[in-house]
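Running this now, will post back.
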Amino acid sequence: MSLFIGLMSGTSLDGVDGVLVDFWAGAARTMAAHHMPYPPALLDELRALQAPGANELEREALAGNGVATVYAQCVAGLLEKSGMQAADVRAIGAHGQTIRHRPELGFTSQTINGALLAELAGIDTIVDFRSRDVAAGGQGAPLVPAAHQALFGEKGKTRVLANIGGIGNISVLHASGHVTGFDTGPGNVLIDEWTRLHLGKPYDAGGGWAASGQELPQLLAVLLAEPYFALPPPKSTGRDLFHLDWLQARLAGFGHAAPADVAATLTRLTAATLAGGIRAHAPDTDTLFVCGGGAFNDTLLRMLAEELGERVTVQTTSALGADPSHVEALCWAWLAWRFDDRKAGNLPSVTGARGERVLGALYPR
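Update: finished.
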């Protein structure tokens, strides 16, 4: 049995992306892909749980049931599209929804009821991939560089993949075979929150709103003064740091700024921090491959190209034969495949863990 399902719901809170992948003979062939949005009530609760609140234990447990239910619906969609049965699938790798990520305190929490997902899907289910790396002293993130190396690495050539979801991270696949990577800072999270606040829309489609504004250099300087950006890797971050209150605190003194100008500046912030990480840690790269929701933001891609200069070509992972919206779910299918074979899924060179570890916790069907 070489079929695995990867399910991912990221910091952007835009629902669940799923892929069914055939890992026969070690190659990865995507057989089906499916997306399930979160129901509005569940989405509202997951957003609320990003910050401390009353009765959190019960609310998170119920949200975990809701997440598992949506994940199971995504699995059903994958099986229907592929013509496969649950019995044909070896295992599910399910990320869950990050509620807290505090590796400096020794924990990370991705909400999902793994037992319920195994029950609903009728397939072995692997969850909680990040905690084992954190237990070994690592950041627990990013975990995708190991999969990026296995799926997209090319010996003798340095490649950089930028995954731009709610948070931006880079995987540096060095020509030597060595792999590094880290969270660069906000990806879409601040842009999305600002768009939701002012336009009532979940995201700035294509970066059109940001393109209509004028960047504010002084505001950008204030945003770039965040100490996280100057930290050396290994490092990871999330909504625990980058959220609307973080932004509002830095907008003091810019009260007359037009919302579109702030949107343009936030988009530049994402581009500048991603490019800064690449210049510092992959100066020999000639091509950047972008995946995640940011791959569909034309303004962000333009700004990335401006920040990196003419020597670096900016493309999406479509150039590697991988749909940008499927890559992260593909990585979770790969992590499930590694777990099933009891092989390490982390890279200490990326997360800072004391060594390689098998990642995940299994709920048998």
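The mean pLDDT is 97. More later if anyone needs it.
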